[in-house]
Each structure stands twice: as structure tokens, then as C-alpha cells.
Write a structure and sequence with these properties.
It comes from Desulfosporosinus orientis (strain ATCC 19365 / DSM 765 / NCIMB 8382 / VKM B-1628 / Singapore I) (Desulfotomaculum orientis). InterPro entries: DUF34/NIF3, DUF34/NIF3_sf. Belongs to the GTP cyclohydrolase I type 2/NIF3 family. The protein is α/β, with parallel strands linked by helices. It has two domains: 5-104, NIF3 (NGG1p interacting factor 3)-like (Udp-n-acetylmuramoylalanyl-d-glutamate--2,6- Diaminopimelate Ligase, Chain: A, domain 1), CATH 3.40.1390.30; 111-244, 3-Layer(aba) Sandwich (Udp-n-acetylmuramoylalanyl-d-glutamate--2,6- Diaminopimelate Ligase, Chain: A, domain 1). Helices cover 32% and strands 23% of the residues. It has helices at 5-15, 49-58, 85-93, 102-105, 111-118, 154-167, 204-209, 222-230, 240-244, 246-257; strands spanning 28-31, 40-44, 62-65, 96-99, 122-129, 141-153, 181-183, 189-199, 214-218, 234-237, 265-268. Helix 5 crosses helix 10 (246-257). The protein is globular.
Length: 277
């Protein structure tokens, strides 16, 4: 059976149903036809113009992005509208674009779970579990928390974490670990760690409630940071991109292991990287 965009969508939605997405989110097929045949797929966090050109050079029929290319309402598709440039280019090249965003964040292949395993956390639990009567088998929620085998100083834990990031295969590409910010005493003893990929500032109260010593996340704003420090919660801000990029590798592994997609060439974008210097 020929692989179509619709079949790829079905494979993704088997582990991250669209109805899991937040109401404000915009997931699913955003550009193109579900019946379009697929021989090559390009994975990315952000479908930028550079990624679209990479997809064209790769001869991809589908771009599978984490962040939706159409998020805020588009009032027009004019050539002088910056927000319309990516959809216009994709349409010009006849490439489909599918987004799996907050639904994928809640799945078993989320970056939070990947990083938790990388750290060797024990007794891993969801930081924010979401219950739904429609979910009989799939467990879902945002972030994770767990325990190191023994406590170590923040500075030691962070050095070990960065070493593991560099040596492991959780990143599909050799990303520069730039833009990382730490807050809290490097001498603080760390044992219980919470992890939330993406913008995790809103999870500071949840991490405090769970008694975490450290929250690893991205995009923590000033006031959320102060709340964390007032509660003796150390913060490691990887930035949005680096905290979510592990999901590209786990998604790649999931898709390439899927029997229904055998014969489809799948690649993780090499040009989609953190925009921070």
C-alpha cells in the first residue's frame, strides 16, 4: 500500500491524538492534501524558510513540524506579509506540512521523558497528569519528575547532564549548547528533578508543589524565576529549542520503526537550529 500524508498522520495520532492538543493550539495537516503520496519526510521543530528550501532539495513531500506554521490568524497570503512567507513557499513547492505540537508534548516520546531517562532518574512520574474519559490505554500529561540515585551539588549535576547531552544520541544533529541559563546556588544539593520541554515557566508552581530541587526547562520568564528561587527551586533554562530537540530524534526512531512507513526516507532537518547565538 502506498504511503500517503494521511497514513503518516494516522501513525502520529496513534501515539498523540489530535484531541490532546490545547484549545489554543493548531495541530494536524495545515498545508496540502491527505491523499498526497509520500516518499520522503523532513522533521523539524520550526518550519522556517530555510527548512522549506531544505525540504525541496531533499525532494520531501511532507514536512513534519512540531510548531505550527499557522498559529495566529493569517489575514492574507500577500507577498509582503512576513507571516505568510512559509505557507506561500510550501504551496509553491507543493509540499504538505503537518504539525504535532501540544499533543506530542504529552506523548510517550516527549523530550521531557527522553531527558529524564538520559539523567537516569528513578521513579519517574508525570509532572502534570491529564485525565480524559476517552483515554483507556494511553497515559498523557506534561513534563516528568524523578530522583537521582543520590544527591549531588547543582554544579556537578549540570556538568554531568551537559556531558551526557554531548555524548548521547538524544539530539539528531550536533547542536551547539548555547543560550543555557542557570539560576540558584551551584552548591545546592539536588536529588529530585522536574523536566518540562518548551516554555515551562508556568510549571514552576507544580514543580514546587512536587518538592523538586531543580527544574530543567526553557523560556522561564523573570517573575516565574523569582517565584522559583523564593521556593528554593533551582532553574536550568536550556532554551526552547534545545529543550525540545530530543523529541525530533525520538519521533524519527518511532517513525522509522513503523512497519507501515517502511520504504519512506525520513530525515531530521540540519538547518533548523536554535536561533540564539
Amino acid at each position: 500500500m502506498a504511503v500517503s500524508v494521511g497514513l503518516v498522520a494516522q501513525v502520529i495520532e496513534n501515539i498523540a491524538p489530535k484531541y490532546w492538543a490545547e484549545e489554543w493550539d493548531n495541530v494536524g495537516l495545515l498545508v496540502g492534501s491527505g491523499s498526497k503520496p509520500v516518499k520522503r519526510i523532513l522533521l523539524c521543530l520550526d518550519c522556517t524558510l530555510e527548512v522549506v528550501e531544505e525540504a525541496k532539495a531533499f525532494d520531501a513531500q511532507l514536512i513534519l513540524a512540531h510548531h505550527p506554521i499557522i498559529f495566529k490568524p493569517l489575514k492574507n497570503l500577500r507577498a509582503d506579509n512576513g507571516a505568510a512567507q512559509v505557507p506561500l513557499r510550501i504551496l509553491q513547492y507543493d509540499i504538505a506540512c503537518y504539525a504535532a505540537h501540544t499533543n506530542l508534548d504529552q506523548s510517550n516520546i516527549s523530550s521531557s521523558k527522553v531527558l529524564g531517562k538520559l539523567l537516569g532518574l528513578e521513579k519517574i512520574e508525570l509532572l502534570e497528569r491529564i485525565y480524559d474519559n476517552r483515554d483507556d490505554q494511553l497515559e498523557r500529561g506534561y513534563g516528568v519528575y524523578g530522583y537521582l540515585k543520590e544527591s549531588h551539588k547543582f554544579g556537578v549535576v549540570w556538568k554531568d547532564f551537559l556531558d551526557k547531552l554531548k555524548k548521547s544520541r538524544v539530539y539528531a544533529q550536533d547542536y551547539e549548547l548555547s543560550g543555557v541559563r542557570l539560576a540558584g546556588s551551584l552548591d545546592k544539593e539536588i536529588r529530585k528533578i522536574a523536566i518540562v520541554n518548551g516554555s515551562g515557566g508556568r510549571f514552576v508552581p507544580k514543580a514546587l508543589f512536587k518538592g523538586a530541587d531543580l527544574l530543567i526547562t526553557g523560556d522561564v520568564d523573570h517573575h516565574a524565576l523569582l517565584d522559583a528561587l523564593d521556593g528554593s527551586l533551582a532553574i536550568a533554562d536550556l532554551g526552547h529549542f534545545l529543550s525540545e530537540a530530543p523529541m525530533l530524534q525520538s519521533l524519527y526512531e518511532h517513525l522509522t520503526a513503523e512497519k507501515a512507513l517502511q520504504g519512506v526516507e525520513i530525515r531530521v532537518s540540519s538547518v533548523n537550529r536554535s536561533p540564539w547565538l
